[in-house]
Amino acid sequence: MSVLPTGTVTFLFTDIEGSTRMWEEDETSMREALARHDGILARAADHHGGHVFKTVGDAFCCAFPAASGALEAALSAQRALQAEPWGEGCVIRVRMALHAGAAEERDGDYFGPPVNRVARLLSAGHGGQTLLSHSTHELVDGRLPYDVDLRDMGERRLKDLTLPERVFQLIAPDLPADFPPLNTLDARSNNLPAQPTPLVGRVREVEEICERLRSPEVRLLTLTGPGGTGKTRLGLQAAAEVLDEYEGGAFFVALDAVRDPAFVASAIAQPVGVTEGGERPLVEELEAYLGSKQLLLVLDNFEQVLGAAPLVGELLARCPRLKVLVTSRAALRVYGEHEYPVPPLALPDPTRPSTADRLGDYEAVRLFVERAHASSPGFRLTDENARDVAEICARLDGLPLAVELAAARSKLLSPRSMLNRLDNRLRLLRGGAANLPARQQTLRGAMDWSHGLLGEQDKALFRRLSVFNGGFTLEAADEVCDTGGLDVLDGVESLLDMSLLRREEGGEDPRFHMLQTIREFALERLHEAEEDEELSARHAEHYLALAEEAEPDLYGPRAASRAEELETEHDNLRAALSWSLAGGHAGSGLRTANALWWFWHLRGHYTEGRRWLKESLARAREAGVAGSASAAERAMALGRAGFLAVLQTDIVRAGELSREGLALARGSQDDPAAAVPLLTLGYVALFGGDHEKAGALFGEALGVFRRLGNGRDVGWALFGLGTLERFRGDNAAAKALYEEALALFEVAGDGDLQAATAFNLGDISMLEGDFGRAKGIFTEALASARKTGGRQAAAVSAANLGLIALFEGDHDRATAFLHDGLALSQDLGHRLEVVNCLEPLAALAGARGEPARAARLWGAAEALREAIGSPISPADLGLLEPYLTEARARLGEAGWRSALAEGQVMTYEAAVSYAAQSSRTRTGPAHEPQA
Fold first, then answer.
1. pTM summary value
2. Torsion angle of C-alpha atoms 23, 24, 25, 30, degrees rounded to 10
3. How many CB atoms lie within 10 A of CB 707?
4. Distance between terminal CA atoms of the chain?
5. With the CA atoms of 286, 291, 297 and 303 taken in that order, what torsion angle do they form, in degrees rounded to the nearest 10?
6. 210: burial class by Cβ within 10 Å (0-12, 13-18, 19+)?
7. DSSP-assigned beta bridge partners for residue 473
8. In this structure, which CATH number among 3.40.50.300, 3.40.50.800, 3.90.226.10, 3.40.109.40 belongs to the domain 203-341?
9. 449-508 per-position pLDDT tens digit
């Protein structure tokens, strides 16, 4: 692939006039004509040193290192297109545009203002016409072919709303020279204000708004959103796009300086040219002037003059060809109004590592980069700073104003430094352009503007709702925020109307949230009102009750829905735990953590669950045994923390926690509190190779569970005994115990333990050579895990399906499944499951003829097993050994030992990274095999 030009690049963009109509009229002829068109354009670009870097439908995007080459390519292409015998009914007429500037090349594409500018210049032209920008004219002037001239079309306002562009038309004796007027903003009456920079992104939103404005049913469209969302800029761009469709033009009415609704009529009259005078009221003058005109009014910042909404309704009723586009933080609530909530800019997930090339596709990141480059010309998005930039944009909610204000700090702060200061974003994000309204020069100014429009009751609810982290339901808002006298339902509706709340999509019960930038402002108001402690206490009490109410359901048929509910509320639960533990409420914190432990297991939050249990226990110890946490509660927490440690194969710590928990439980003679530590210690002994001790501990746990009369927990102990028999190599005994446990889990409706038992029965089927049955078990388990969000079940299922694919000789599918299992296991921090992926990946490398890779992976797995204290079972080793033996023979004994040693000294992170790389390119996610 040839290297794309950099530095000052001349872009040639083209597209076919009327192509949609021609496709509809004669698809066959159009397809043949398009192929000829493509050949002409490609040859012209190539012959004159250009590069076609992108085609979109019938549009060509070409880059040239020299402007003269771009001009000659356009000239030769137009001549060839003109001379081509197209045939009747399918004549191809192509418009072209050339613009030169410095653009950023990433991953075979270009980004930046010059690309936006040439696209806008292209949209101004007509089929057969070639337009040049002033910058291109400067580069080619004096070097034109002898028979070519450039016609000065004057300064024209393109639809990107930036400063006017001096436009030139290519003139040649054998090409058409006369065309209709250019499709620029000058073609229709308007006062749409020029913008200092092009609009970044928002393609989908502009298209949707234009589509609604073109609908005959839509006469009034209101763009709503909080301050800083970019409503004004979006409304202006949409107005520019549809301007050609309004004979009377489009007029922008700025209402930010208007406070009295009575003056709105005057504000509208001035830009459209209506003067007040005579005997008729101004409203009647407006109606008379606008009555027959096809005209678009853009009313900006309507939220402070909502009392003038009836005026808008009256104008629409009396002026049948009038349309009104409003930007406002609140809807007008006029009959026939259509509302368009403006979303934040598209954001990447900052928790997922990505390259600069990939992150540059996101609107928020592109806006940050363009504005940062304007502030600090040396700024570039790199793989090193990409994640920090992504997190900055995410923490600013993708609000354009916030992103622009942050980017302006790039001349002073690196992305990492900026990120470290975002805990107080309202203080950081100030110092916007001096020619912006005061409320847009700081993020706090934008928030103050909205807050000042609220009534006292709404202000009280607004600040109290900030106690929620991650959203809330109406029921939660009512219980936590109504300390007397507040109408929460009406208040939420009012805040929603003012765009200070957003309603989340989906779900049976309505759910609402504040953007984090708005929440930070509201938290300040809560602290100023000295209500933060009271509201935090009510919030923590509410979520403790939710956790304890949900816990019993996590062990039965409602586990998936309850776990999903708790996942939705996870940020609120974290906030409740943080407040309880920091504020001297250790008992409440420990109760909340105890109630959530199985949720953390189900959703794979092992590390987080262990951290909360550890911190809760530490605070309980500080409070003393006679404090707010009983010995039984602490014993349960210790056993549960130990069990989560086992799941992460932290065997030493699991033993320490469980022994302390068992001692506490026995000291308080509390059988329920002793059960989980006993079971956990059974696994500690099992993984430590002490089968006799493991059997005794599992047996004692079984006795406790039988006395308590809980069938599901009896099955849990039987499962442990089955696993012991598997480690001993007695598959028949293990199978019998698993089947007995499975029957109890089915009665209890515990899908998680059913899945875990099914995995082990599937393993036994594999060891017995019944791959078809094993594949069916794991396929069903993977589908169920993906449906319920069980990440551990998904990890184990994927790894086992990868192993079966290896045995069946389907190496590509094996790679895909094992990589999926590895990624999930790593996310969970489950090192034993990571090993269970490394080992079959080593065997797979051997099967693929990559013996050194096989040895390194096997060495890494051996070292990790030794660190965990969990040796591989002879049965599992027997399944993989043939592949390793073949690899060893290929590499030779000395080479095998050398590569094995390389793997054994790898760190955990290095081993996982090496395993995740593949010598074969992975083309997509694994597909579940059919059972």
1. 0.69
2. 10
3. 11
4. 43
5. 60
6. middle
7. 511
8. 3.40.50.300
9. 778 888 899 999 999 999 999 899 999 999 999 877 788 999 999 898 888 888 887 666
